[in-house]
Amino acid sequence: MDKKSIIPSFIESLDPAKDIIVNSLEIPLDDVIENDLLKEIPLVKTIISVYKIGINLKERKAIKNTVSFINAFNEQTISEKAYLKYKEKIESSEQTAKEEVERVLLLIDESIDDIKIKFHARLFRAFVCEDITWDRFCELSEINRRLFLSDYHVLEFEYEKLTKPVKNGEVKSMMYDTYRTDRLASLGLMIIDRKKGEVITAHPHYVATDLGIDFIKYTK
Hints:
Helix 8 (about 150-165) packs across helix 10 (about 210-220). It is built from 10 helices and 2 strands, in the order H-H-H-H-H-H-H-H-H-E-E-H. The longest helix has 17 residues, at about 55-75. It is mainly alpha-helical. A two-stranded antiparallel sheet has the order 1-2. About 60% of the residues lie in helices and about 5% in strands.
């Protein structure tokens, strides 16, 4: 695909002023290139024009992924100032455009689950809004690639324990499968809570790390 056309159309698709929201989940893959609303999204228009005819299942899925990403990116309004600042950065540096936009496009293209696409988009929005650095985005998006869908609720529960007030007498706890907490720990998202005691039992108590908290905070 022509990088000279795909990168500008990607940036243009993020423009909050366009306010284009399409429920791509309700559009069958067979109809994805015939949908007029989808064609209003610059990146989708570019993809369709490049392939023109003979768009196969993979390209149709890529278009649906693109729409899901754009929708999730625009769930929360970013300021025009933040958008224009990022747009100017991309337009002024071919190297930055190649490094950042191409990485995001690859994340979109390879995703199978819609929720992972949405999380990639929310993380990228946090980066564009300068809530996280590029290195942090790369780290968190790589974690998102490697997580199992069933892992998300574990992190969300731990995040809520830390951020929501506890009512009188309420105890927030959940038993997790060991293999799941071990997997989350291997990704740096959870760690054994040493405050519960120095002796490590057969079922140690895990808590979310700062990285795990960031992951939930910026994907919610």
